[in-house]
Structures are given as C-alpha cells and as structure tokens.
C-alpha cells in the first residue's frame, strides 16, 4: 500500500499575524525603529519575511501597528475601570493608580514612547487610530471632573487633558529614567519601597491640587463700645 503523504499543518492567519506583532513589540522596544531588524522579528515569530510583508506591508507599517498595539492595551484597560459611580476624587485616584501600575508592568510601552519621541512622532502621525483611542479616556476623566465641580468636592477649573498628562508625567519619568536617576542620586529607585513612597507622594499631591479652594469667612467686625 502506498504510504500516505503527511498533511501540512493548517495555517492560522490570525495566529501568524499576532506572533509577528508580539515579536515586533519586543524587537522595537529593545532597539528602536532604526536598530530593529525584520529578519530578527520573523526569526522570533518563527515565520518568514513574506508573511511579515503580507500582513503589514513593510517595516514602517509594522512599526505603526506596534505603536497602536501597546497604546490600545493601555486605552482598553483604562476604559474598563469602573469609576462612573465612584466619588470623583476616588475615581481620579483610581485612574492614577492604574496608570502607575500599567507603566510599571509594561517597560515596552515606556521604551517605545521614548524612541518615538526622539523621532518626533513621525510614525505616530501615520496612525488615525491612536488619536481616536484618547478621546473616550479624556471623556471619562472629564466626567469625573465635572461631577466633582458640581458637587463642590473638586476645584472647578481643571482641564482633563492637562490633568491626564500630569498624571502620566508623575508616573512615567521615575520609571522611564530609573537607571540614570538611580545612578545620579545613589538611590535604588527600582526598589519596591521607593516606588511605593513615590506613588503615595504623587497621590497626596494630586489630592491637594484637586481639592476645592478653601472658603475663608470674613472676620466679624466688633461693635465699638
């Protein structure tokens, strides 16, 4: 009897694309756009260069998809926060805690943002998805700010975009520059205890800034005897 020919494994396009994207995130985060090599990406993904070009067009197209992927994870998880019915200040601090934790867990996001900023966001400009992702998050934050202002529990003059960038800045700098700052100040900024103190200080600063202005009652005039 003739020996049956071995069947080729069935292709899974979604799995192949996801594998290339995962490998590309690691490669670009480690080496930046200029240093990353497509040959290394397909080697990591255990596929071939033809598949990379088939799904992403070219290196530029792949890099834009990488940026969209890491930022989509951040945005998707932010929007899953259940802060709609919380006290406004608690909701904002919950968002801050999430941002702090997300940047701590995802060094690839920190690295990719740093590399892309050095390149003046030339690849981010090609993405229409990334600006669209930001709108719902700012809407969520703005809703908390408006509700807090109406209730009198938050100061009324806060812009959602300014506040969001402030929160990200308080988180990002101490994590993205942890090695240089540790060396400059001879302090282990990677230590969990140091990161915890930094987070607590940032929360206290946010709480103080968000508080409504104190109302000072005018001193009563004494009647002349």
TrEMBL record:
<protein>
    <submittedName>
        <fullName>TetR family transcriptional regulator</fullName>
    </submittedName>
</protein>
<keyword id="KW-0238">DNA-binding</keyword>
<dbReference type="GO" id="GO:0003677">
    <property type="term" value="F:DNA binding"/>
</dbReference>
<dbReference type="InterPro" id="IPR036271">
    <property type="entry name" value="Tet_transcr_reg_TetR-rel_C_sf"/>
</dbReference>
<dbReference type="InterPro" id="IPR041474">
    <property type="entry name" value="NicS_C"/>
</dbReference>
<dbReference type="InterPro" id="IPR009057">
    <property type="entry name" value="Homeodomain-like_sf"/>
</dbReference>
<dbReference type="Pfam" id="PF17938">
    <property type="entry name" value="TetR_C_29"/>
</dbReference>
<dbReference type="Pfam" id="PF00440">
    <property type="entry name" value="TetR_N"/>
</dbReference>
<dbReference type="InterPro" id="IPR050109">
    <property type="entry name" value="HTH-type_TetR-like_transc_reg"/>
</dbReference>
<dbReference type="InterPro" id="IPR001647">
    <property type="entry name" value="HTH_TetR"/>
</dbReference>
